[in-house]
Amino acid sequence: MNVSHLGQASPPLRRLSELRGPAPQRSLDARALAALAANPGCRRRALLDAAGVDKTALAQQLGRPAPFGQSPFAIRRGLQFESRLKRDGYAVLLAPLRRRLGLPEDEVASLAVPDLLPAASPAVRAERTAAVLAEAAADPAGWTLLDHPMLRLEVAGSPAYLEPDAVVVHAGRCTVVEIKSFPVLDGSADPANVGAAARQAAVYVLALQEAAARLAGRPLSAGPYAVQELPGAPELTVLLVCPKDFSSQPVAVPVDVRRELAVTRRQLSRMTRIDQLLAALPEGVTFDLARDASGAPTRPAGELAAAVAAVPAAYAPECISTCELGFHCRAQARCAGGVEQLGRGVRGELGSLRTVEEALAAAEQGGGGGPELDEAAERLAYAARLRAGALAAGGVR
Amino acid sequence: MSLLSTLARLEAVRAQRAQPLATVRHRHLSERPMVLVPLAAAGESGAPLAVLLGTDRESPRLHFVPQPLNRTQRSEFLAAVAREVVPYLASFGDEVELLEGSEKDPVSGEKVPVVRELCADAPQLIVPNAGGVSHLALLGRSTRFRRTVEDPDPGEYPSPTEVPLLGRWLTHLTDRAQVPGSSMLLAMTGLLSRHWATGQSNLEDQHLAARLAWHLPPAGFEPPGTGAAAAEWVESARDGDGLLLHPPAGPATDPKFDERVLAPAILRHDAAVAVRERAEAARDAAEVRRAAGLVEQAHAELARVLLSVTLPTWHDVWHGLDLLRALPAAGHLPDRWEGDRWSFTMHRDRVAAGEPPQPRRDDAVTAARKLAQREREQARLEIQEALDDPLAMAERRLAGEAFAGEVVEVVPEWSAGRSPKPRPLLVVRTDDRPHADPGREVHRAHAEPAQRAEVVSAAPGEVVVRLLSGMGRRKDPEPGSVPEPGTAVVFTLFELAPRQSAPLPEPADTPWTHGGPPVAVEDVPVGADEWE
Fold it and tell me: How many CB atoms lie within 10 A of CB B90?
């Protein structure tokens, strides 16, 4: 368990650990943060993540397990690819970095790969990373590669621990390296994949910026596009390392993440403070699965569902591919007849009409609705007349 | 998504059944399509695992790679697929129409008559979803540059001759699939989405079986029914071993299936092959025979499990075709299919002429041409769909781009001048609210010949237009060319014939701003890096 830093916990932290129960804390990773930042209005996810609840187990116990998983083939291939990168002293990572910095190719630089205590708890690892980072940033000539460092980022009042694939430090600046398994085909990669990777890397850059600001004892600059001029500050361009074409030959591509960084910063700052979420929570609510001696959850699903329902969610169909509770929230949205089950855009289109039945009722009222019919309802009624007419003209029904 | 399709989705939620989004079928369906259900190996982009394909619903054929990491087996798989797909494609190249046209002689500049061939029909490939199309595109990209034994320098790993040919065809078909309204390569989810709305989101509609669950009760779902519950069952119901009861439509397989079924089956196959190789090395005839039996057994087992995860999707695709075939064909389909036939004919000719495979990246002029073509086709598609289908026209009416109504009064008027022309006023009663300011040019839908008009005044419930053309050359309009009172008319604010864009330069005249003329023929080295 890595809750040592919660020892003399402040009231919110104590409440969060009560919510989780005796289960070990799940730390937020960059992927989860990116998903959270994509749906900052979801209080349910924010609270569960802050409390470090195991959402996979929770979803399982609620009866709608998350469909996520990784194929053994993909895992094996990923490992193979990473081991390939480590060949020849990480030459594949260093070459593009040097090109960017305009350093001679033939100069042999020794690369330091410090031990970052991979077996320790996240808090310890984060301390160690911070120390190594400060040390490496102070050396203007050397090259240091931090292999799976641990970064700490404050999110809505609770700490999140992030583990980038690698960070390269040289000349007092560091560069985030993100290793992905999708290919760069003929010089371009799938934009959706690159976007997701950039959002993830932006979270790391933000954490490094905060670390550098902490180290220098200065506040984080207000402008998201400003380049930090502090020792150990991250470059705003990250290195994306992917297989080239159909081979397992790695290729490193610089990706500018300034935009994603700005978005992440804004979204994270918009997230409701955890203490507010906790204050709104009824007394006695907990997400404890009440595991028995064998580790099997014993908490009745109905009771658990009621606890989950105490925190409002902001469901959108995108949640299904990013959140473990996606299926659960969808079932709830369907049960309630909410229009958000049809997509995010639909909600905006229908204005104040929040349920399917309300919307259909507005559509059926035709033109004869009272003055209380707002613009969206009127448009819907007009659309319904057009649809009925067209279907009749087309001979359907 | 427009408000009309949102409305259809809302209705689908209430009915728990898919609702029509079209009154006619907007895509050409071949009499003899080839259905492909491709599967990809996880973790490696574009690595094929298996494909279930065929033109006969009753007898699909399965091809697969026993060890997805083995490049030789992958080559053999691609050759086997090529031997199915290429003959199917080629079979449409035999029957041709001869069209007479004229061409400018490059030397004399005179027009000379030429006879061009146009294939009477074109092939049609149908895959379950958009992922299937991108997988075929990746296969095309990874195979079209492969060197074969016939090449002067076959390299270390020559592939069977059919493989690069398959790659060129797949590249052509997936490229053509980007053209709006084209029908040579179609994804079933896209086809269904165009014609029906379900009570779930677009995102969930990408799952073929889940979206079909809004049309037909899925096999094995108790009690039989359609809608959200059926769709969720298809998405997530698992058996005692944790395997999905209805496998996903691919190309990615369910990770649980990979872990519990596929990986062990591949392992057993690998082991059997290893035993056979050892026995062959030891020249132990009895052991070789025994090992060969093991390999065959392991191979059959792999075939069985791969068939079990592709066959349900195969049936889903054909069920989708049944649904679509029940819709009457839209009027403009032959017109658009002719574009596909030209595309097919031209690629057939390029292959026959021995032209090199499509380059990795288009040069500036080709890219601009393709973009212009897609834009043009998009405009044409939108116009044709609106004319073919009252529901598509309703979308435009809702957007204020068209109005439909009844002619309540016709005021005969004439233009001033020495030879007055008919310029009658039509008073159209309509509930639509077009963005029609006075003076705006409008077009009468379904008019033969084309008829333009001009908005004179537009008030709620009534639009007055003045007809400007399509009434013959005389002083009095041709009989039937001016709608009588009581006639239903539709006017559009958009033109009914797409505009021609300015011609693009020849590749040799590419301006320097766009990289200048492309450098001769790109050398197409097949990197050993790609097939280590």
Answer: 14
- Gap between the Cα atoms of A234 and B40, Å rounded: 38
- C-beta atoms of B7 and A345 within 8 A: no
- pLDDT tens string A298-310: 888 888 888 888 8
Q: Which of B142, B201, B393 sits opposite A246 (nearest CB)?
A: B142
pLDDT at A329: 92
Q: Rank A352-361, B153-162, B383-392, B412-421 by mean pLDDT and report only the highest.
A: B383-392
Q: In chain A, which residues have their Cβ closer than 8 Å to the Cβ of B245?
A: none
pLDDT tens for each residue of B65-105? 999 888 889 889 999 999 999 999 999 988 988 988 877 77
**Residue in chain B lying closest to A362 (CA):** B7
Residue A6, pLDDT score:
39
Instruction: Please tell me the distance from the alpha carbon of residue A220 to that of residue A226, in angstroms, as a whole number.
Output: 10
pLDDT at A396 over 80: no
Give CA–CA dist B106/B478, Å, rounded: 45
d(CA A60, CA A69): 13
pLDDT at B527: 43
CB proximity under 8 Å: A 199-238 to B: none
pLDDT digits (tens, 9 = 90+) for B494-524: 988 877 777 777 778 888 887 777 775 554 4
Which residues of A fall within a CB distance of 8 Å from B232?
A: 327, 331
Note whether A183 contacts B202, CB cutoff 8 Å.
no
Distance from CA of B216 to the nearest CA of A (A): 18
Question: Token digits for A202?
Answer: 């932006």
Domains of chain B as residue ranges with CATH: 402-492 (2.40.10)
Residues of B in contact with A380 (CB under 8 A): 3, 7
Q: How far is B423 from chain A (nearest CA, A)?
A: 30
Q: ipTM score of the complex?
A: 0.85
Q: Domain segments of chain A: what residues? A: 72-269, 344-393
- Please tell me which residue of chain A has the smallest CA distance to B255: A71
Average pLDDT over residues B103-112: 78
Q: Which residues of chain A lie closer than 8 angstroms to B211, CB-CB?
A: none
C-alpha–C-alpha distance, residues B192 and A332, integer Å: 27
Quick check: pTM over 0.80?
A: yes
Q: Indicate if the pLDDT at residue B402 is higher than 50.
A: yes
For every residue of B430-454, DSSP letters joined together read: -S------TT-EEEETT-SS--EEE
Closest B-chain CA to A396: B23
Q: Is 60 exceeded by the pLDDT of residue A364?
A: yes
Mutate which of A329, A386, A397 to test chain B, going by most B C-beta atoms within 10 A? A386
